[in-house]
UniProtKB/TrEMBL annotation:
InterPro entries: Glyas_Bleomycin-R_OHBP_Dase, Glyoxalase-like_dom. Gene3D superfamilies: 2,3-Dihydroxybiphenyl 1,2-Dioxygenase, domain 1. This is Glyoxalase-like domain-containing protein. Pfam families: Glyoxalase_3. Residues 7-197 form the Glyoxalase-like domain. It comes from the Bacteria.
Amino acid sequence: MSSIHGIDHTVVMAESLEEAALTAHRLGFVTTPAARHPFGTGNVLVQLQGSYLEYLALLDESLFPEDAPGRFSFPSFNRDFLIGEGAGISMLALKTGDPEALQREWAQTGLSTVPPFSFERTARAPDGRDLPVSFTLAFASHADLVRAGVFALTHHHAPENFWHREYQTHPNTAVRMAGVTMVAPDPERAAATLSALVGGSVEPAADALTLPLSDGAVLEVMGPAAFAARFGSDRFGDTRIPRFAAMTIAVADPAATRAVLERNGIAASETGNGLTVPPEEAGGAGYRFVPDDAA
């Protein structure tokens, strides 16, 4: 898709913001202060270089806009994900400079779309100031992705209102998001669906099918057995529908990453060129930490 420019962030559904922040800190991440959305959810973020992890929790269901024809309810989707799947990666957010153009591209491929919507909130800077941030989001849906939401967004705010170096300096030396992993009972079919969303060609890898993105990140789709072999977890062994399961994070100093995980009691395994943390250790999402130059 010519209107997609890589990964913006992942949405990691959590039981509470306090629990999410604790998990992130144990993994060696610095988090932003908690923020509230006007539609009843809240988040804490892990900012990387050019992308981030959004740990999301439900705060006030009375503010949820319900699904209706021609409208997508972000909080309702994530509530239903939490009920049906438990904590973990509920959504993938892509970068776009033109949500309206992307929506038209998606519609032309036969995907279901709804009109883009915009919202504003405040973000707390390291110096304590509350600064305005705003976004426009475009959503697409497919019958195969009922538990794997995909959307794209544009940031409208001044970059300095959102991105802060203090929030991007992590004890685990995380630098950037190098990839996102989906688990699916039929990897070929799921990869074809993702390809319709992001464009590009599906490429085979040792244990997965991959979709390289323009920012250097990679989406990969693997079967439950391949995921279990890499992450040492059978959490998704019985999955019957595709869902996002793990993230690959590029780090500057793998030895420092290993030391942080050991110090915080996180069980990690050496796999290939990286350290893997199973979802059971990390709030329902798997993590793979790889050297930045090898990502």
